[in-house]
Design brief:
It comes from Penicillium antarcticum. This protein is an alpha/beta fold. The chain contains 20 helices and seven strands. The radius of gyration is 22 Å and the shape is globular.
Length: 448
């Protein structure tokens, strides 16, 4: 049962003054829709598009512009039209339960998910464009721009992990922990491509245990840091015969690369016996991973045009691919990930998925959207414990949840003390530390 505190906590609305929700609804959403219009125009202008597809693309662009017009004029949210998908009735039922609302006066989590479902509905209703990823061009372009970061991480992984033998050195427990912290932070900051936030430990640092100061320096912007707790859990349970780790992915491109690298590390280090990656079923929140992004990742990593520095990538890429081919890393999708429901609704809306996650050794949720859904996008006091903010996925849920999230919204729980909150507010006022992506959380709950 939810606590009295949980009942009193409301979610962020796009009408909340000073919120990132309001800023996003008023400035970003229309730009995102315009980006889809531009993408369709560019694709339709390509020479290999036949006339029927080109004609239909014009109708799609008109429908997308209609959504943009609704947003700019703050129209009321309307019921979804039937596009042949089984979830339409559920969406409309949820909209009805909210009551009268508009684009700039609605629950942010619902409104944003609703927008992407409206976009997808246009493609679902088309004849020739149902499988088209309107965000593919943007995802590919962004990944290629991260060339230096990809090549640097490939070099570091091959030299200090895959070929050093250090991860299998059972006698050097402290070095193994430092490497776990560093690789977890690589996954944490993976959507930033800013490797200056990492400790950058060398093999010598680890062998001589000189990496502690670098780790501590890199962690100053992690406002809720449960790394010690998750490491203690992993070491305490290392003898389990089956240790499947689930990673609920966030962004494609560079972040997906760091997530696959993290999965490989978890396997190479013997922390996991298998890793399952959860993708979205359809294009979502611009850059979220869909199944085809996995293939696209390896296509780009194999390309000398995209990544000309091949010394380490030519050794790393086949190694990563082998994990997929052997079944050590698998992928899966569930329709629940592309609903507007918070994860507090998982027990009633996706009980089979809940059971799968309860059977997992560890479930890692990546990114800001997953964190918002884990915490019901609630305006929690920042000192609220992560366990309480998780609601039914917290205490006695039997799910071991690790959230790796850079702060890019209005929600953040788990800061240990009010004194630390006050210091953050002074250091990055007006909620900047919750919104600007330069601060983060590594939040763990064992579900006991």
């Amino acid at each position: 049962m939810p606590s009295a505190t949980m009942k009193a906590i409301r979610s962020v609305w796009t009408s909340d003054e000073g919120s990132m929700a309001k800023q996003t609804a008023e400035t970003r959403w229309a730009k995102i829709i315009q980006g889809t219009v531009d993408d369709m125009g560019e694709t339709a202008a390509m020479e290999d598009i036949d006339d029927q597809k080109r004609v239909e693309s014009i109708a799609i662009q008109i429908a997308l512009k209609d959504i943009k017009n609704e947003i700019k004029n703050n129209y009321a949210l309307t019921l979804l039209q039937d596009d042949g998908k089984p979830d339409v009735q559920e969406w409309n039922k949820q909209l009805a339960s909210i009551g009268e609302c508009s684009w700039i006066n609605c629950p942010w989590l619902f409104g944003e998910c609703y927008m992407y479902r409206r976009i997808q509905g246009i493609f679902n209703s088309s004849r020739y464009w149902q499988d088209y990823d309107v965000f593919r061009r943007q995802k590919d372009s962004t990944f290629i721009k991260s060339r230096a970061a990809v090549e640097e991480l490939a070099s570091r992984y091959m030299q200090t992990i895959a070929e050093s033998g250090l991860v299998q050195d059972e006698s050097n427990e402290e070095a193994k922990k430092l490497r776990f912290i560093e690789m977890t932070e690589v996954a944490l900051w993976g959507n930033a491509t800013d490797l200056s936030l990492l400790a950058n430990l060398t093999l010598e640092d680890l062998q001589q245990l000189q990496g502690r100061d670098a780790i501590q320096k890199s962690q100053r912007n992690i406002v809720d840091n449960d790394t010690d707790d998750v490491w203690a859990y992993l070491r305490r349970t290392a003898g389990q015969s089956s240790r499947q780790i689930d990673i609920v992915l966030d962004n494609a491109g560079f972040e997906l690369f760091t997530d696959v690298l993290y999965a490989a590390y978890l396997l190479d280090a013997g922390i996991a016996t298998s890793v399952r990656l959860h993708t979205k079923e359809s294009p979502w929140f611009v850059s979220d991973v869909i199944p085809s992004d996995i293939e696209s990742l390896f296509k780009h990593l194999d390309s000398s045009d995209c990544f000309p520095s091949r010394e380490f990538l030519d050794r790393l890429t086949p190694r990563l691919l082998k994990f997929f081919q052997s079944g050590a890393i698998t992928t899966t999708s569930d329709p629940f990930w592309t609903t507007s429901f918070s994860f507090h609704e998982m027990p009633s809306k996706a009980p089979a998925l809940l059971k799968e996650l309860q059977n997992s050794y560890l479930v890692i949720f990546k990114g800001d959207l997953n964190y918002r859904k884990l915490t019901r996008d609630g305006l929690w006091p920042h000192t609220t414990t992560y366990e309480e903010a998780l609601g039914p996925l917290g205490k006695q849920s039997s799910i071991k949840i690790l959230a790796l999230r850079t702060n890019k919204s209005d929600v953040c729980a788990g800061v240990p003390t009010q004194r630390e909150v006050d210091a953050l507010n002074e250091e990055a006022p007006n909620g900047a530390w919750i919104q600007n992506g330069k601060y983060a959380v590594i939040s763990f709950n064992e579900g006991q």
